[in-house]
Amino acid sequence: MPDSLQLSVVVPVHNEEDNVAPLVAEILAALRGRIDFEIVYVDDTSRDATLARLRELQATTPELRVVRHLTNAGQSTAVRNGVKAARAPWIATLDGDGQNDPADIPALLAKRDASAPEVKLFAGWRVNRQDSGSKRWASKFANAIRSRLLRDATPDTGCGIKLFEREAFLDLPYFDHMHRYLPALMQRAGWQTVSVPVNHRHRTAGVSKYTNLGRALVGIKDLLGVAWLIQRSRRTAVEELPGQGGPR
């Protein structure tokens, strides 16, 4: 990894052609001159001009890298592949629809710098949701059930903007939709997590990739699976004993 890079911004996208350029511009405005960073977009087999727009932006944006899925794999896989491709020790994630505000990333970084080293995840908390009423209700209901079952002390796990340590993330168990359970998974691994209030915006272009019913049906199975993982988790401190024979 380049020694100078401090942050990789990972953005998964699928059919977001009209959101790519504005979001890249906002990331640059938020981070240029503040920190050494890169932007890693992961295109999950978009059928529109998303990939073409990204390729055009690469010509004028040296920070921008593009990873392309050869088959459709979903958001969690896109996030994981973006993190694997990233070259910085810390990762910030954003949804590709523009509803997350890149201007919140410096606040997450400041919160990290003021926190104990045991805190490996800073999760965005949408205190002023700009979604439809039905979507807000469904999210509130799902968050309540998740919080009661997993006891992860996190008011909003569905927010796309997060800041976490790359190494800690890659050590987590991987499964589809895991991005919705990062606080519980980080806590299961023995790390601390913090929720940070962030801005939330209306989608201005494109359409949502999820329905309330579809998200709920998948979420039930995922929630039970994560609860099982937590119950079966075992952790212990380890130490390496010094050798007695000297160097060989």
From TrEMBL:
GO terms for cellular component: plasma membrane. InterPro entries: Glyco_trans_2-like, Glycosyltransferase_2, Nucleotide-diphossugar_trans. GO terms for biological process: lipopolysaccharide biosynthetic process. Keywords: Cell membrane, Glycosyltransferase, Lipopolysaccharide biosynthesis, Membrane, Transferase, Transmembrane, Transmembrane helix. The keyword Transmembrane applies. Residues 8-169 form the Glycosyltransferase 2-like domain. It holds the Pfam family Glycos_transf_2. It comes from the Bacteria. One of its GO terms (molecular function) is undecaprenyl-phosphate 4-deoxy-4-formamido-L-arabinose transferase activity. PANTHER family: UNDECAPRENYL-PHOSPHATE 4-DEOXY-4-FORMAMIDO-L-ARABINOSE TRANSFERASE, UNDECAPRENYL-PHOSPHATE 4-DEOXY-4-FORMAMIDO-L-ARABINOSE TRANSFERASE-RELATED. This is Dolichol-phosphate mannosyltransferase. The lineage of its organism: Bacteria, Pseudomonadati, Pseudomonadota, Gammaproteobacteria, Lysobacterales.
